[in-house]
Write a structure and sequence with these properties.
The complex is a heterodimer.
Chain A lengths: L18 H15 L12 H20 L1 H5 L8 H26 L5 H10 L16 H21 L5 H29 L3 H20 L11 H6 L7 H19 L9 E3 L4 E3 L5 H11 L3 H14 L1 H19 L1
Antiparallel strand pairs in A: 1-2
Helix pairs in contact in A: 2-4, 4-7, 6-7, 6-8, 6-10
Chain B lengths: L8 E7 L6 E8 L3 H12 L7 E6 L11 H5 L23
Antiparallel strand pairs in B: 1-2, 1-3
The chains are: A mainly alpha, B alpha+beta.
Chain lengths: 330, 96
């Protein structure tokens, strides 16, 4: 899962303070233009490092918070098959969070700092997880649309310039495909079910369609500092490009499911070779980002509670390790 | 937050199958080596990606510095006589 950084204030890019600095920046940009990956310990502009830390921590937080809406349905999965699938998917999301935290730590920010920023509200996560998962169909819709949107983003990110992030993305993309397919399969099953099941499917897609499109972030025209991220290859494609790719891939899948998407303006544009779509409600997006979505408070509260409830385990393990170490010395 | 210090960081290396080298794949936080192994197993081998895991305390690794790249690696670039293609062997000599 992925949270777009352009929803936050841009990080200021300082003018080079010396000739040496200017030379380093030029060499750095040259490497990026030549598609040479940047690795930890290498020189990089301060703003590049900060932009990456922010984007990666936001991305990792999204993975971890994303476990909550699905965890909510574990005990109510309709069969053992669906339950083990859901468990495996949620475990993957936790794993994805850890890959990205580990990659972000190579930039010199500790995981503890990142988690503190999440819990204090300083760091954001993808707005999609502030919507509740109200029905079992949502487990399918989240896999199909939310993970589908995430894959579109992450395939682009796997070609990004920072080595550890790009490697984490490659690993994640390999696993994410299962997430989308299991979701679509779940929805296909519902689409062949009773009238109530078909209605549940349509209702779920109606709720998740627009928030899924918002996952790609604001329109390019309203995302002015995306240009720098593109130049540094932190981003490989613009928000609108990725959104269009996702829509073009998803509409035929919706038709196959025999459902409609809740956008009267959605139609194939022969001339453009793409689907046209209606205006996104950016006011709603802004509100959810600001913390006024249906579940913002609940998500952070659950994270803080789990963290605090687990504190004694962390302390006990640290104390045990220390005791063992002292024994070795003695 | 109650934690004052975080568990140490461990680098994780995985042998994907017998016959191949262990390869670095990421890191985990753990209080000791045993927990680091268990965490590495859960985080990095959920789909049979490995048959063997090494965990190494991150601070035990000594790495070359990027600024030493030239002095360390560039001298090798002009020693082309270290490569087999430097030598002309007539076809008549057979496969070599």
């Amino acid at each position: 899962m992925y949270g777009d950084t352009s929803i936050q204030k841009p990080i200021k890019i300082a003018e080079p303070t010396s000739e040496e600095q200017a030379r380093l920046e030029e060499l750095f940009q040259q490497k990026i233009d030549d598609n040479i990956k940047i690795e930890p310990q290498e020189w990089m502009p301060d703003a590049y490092r900060k932009t990456l830390v922010r984007q990666m921590s936001q991305h990792a937080h999204s993975e971890v918070i994303g476990m909550q809406p699905e965890g909510n349905w574990l005990t109510r999965a309709p069969s053992l098959r669906r339950k083990v699938i859901l468990l495996a998917k949620i475990q993957d999301e936790g794993g994805h969070g850890l890959y990205i935290y580990a990659a972000a730590e190579t930039l010199g920010t500790s995981r503890a700092e990142m988690i503190e920023q999440l819990q204090s509200g300083k760091a954001k996560y993808s707005s999609i997880f502030n919507y509740p998962a109200l029905t079992w169909a949502d487990m399918g819709t989240i896999g199909w649309l939310v993970d589908g949107a995430a894959i579109t983003n992450q395939v682009a990110l796997s070609r990004g310039s920072y080595g550890p992030y790009s490697r984490a993305m490659i690993r994640i993309c390999k696993e994410e495909s299962f997430h989308q397919r299991q979701g679509y399969e779940l929805l296909l099953t519902l689409s062949k079910g009773t009238k109530e099941q078909k209605e549940m499917l349509q209702e779920s897609v109606n709720r998740f369609w627009w928030p899924s499109l918002m996952m790609f972030g604001p329109n390019d025209a309203d995302s002015p500092h995306s240009a720098q991220s593109l130049k540094w290859k932190i981003k490989k494609k613009s928000n609108d490009q990725l959104r269009q790719e996702f829509i073009d891939a998803t509409v035929p899948q919706a038709e196959f499911l025999g459902i409609t998407l809740p956008d009267p303006d959605l139609k194939w544009n022969e001339e453009r070779g793409h689907y046209d779509y209606g205006e996104i409600d950016w006011e709603e997006f802004g509100n959810v980002i600001k913390g006024n979505g249906p579940c913002n408070k609940q998500r952070i509260a659950a994270h803080v509670k789990a963290h605090e409830d687990g504190a004694w385990v962390r302390e006990a393990a640290a104390a045990y390790a220390e005791k063992q170490q002292n024994k070795d010395v003695a | 937050m109650t934690d004052t210090k975080e568990w140490p960081l461990w680098e994780v290396f995985i042998r994907s199958k017998a016959g191949l080298d262990h390869k670095h794949c990421g890191s985990v936080h753990a209080s000791d080596s045993e927990m680091a192994l268990e965490a590495a197993r859960d985080v990095y081998t959920r789909r049979s990606e490995g048959v063997s895991i090494w965990v190494v305390p991150s601070n035990a690794i000594t790495a070359s510095k990027p600024e030493d790249k030239e002095s360390l690696f560039e001298p090798a670039d002009d020693k082309i006589y270290r490569h087999p293609t430097f030598y002309d062997i007539p076809k008549g000599a057979g496969k070599m």
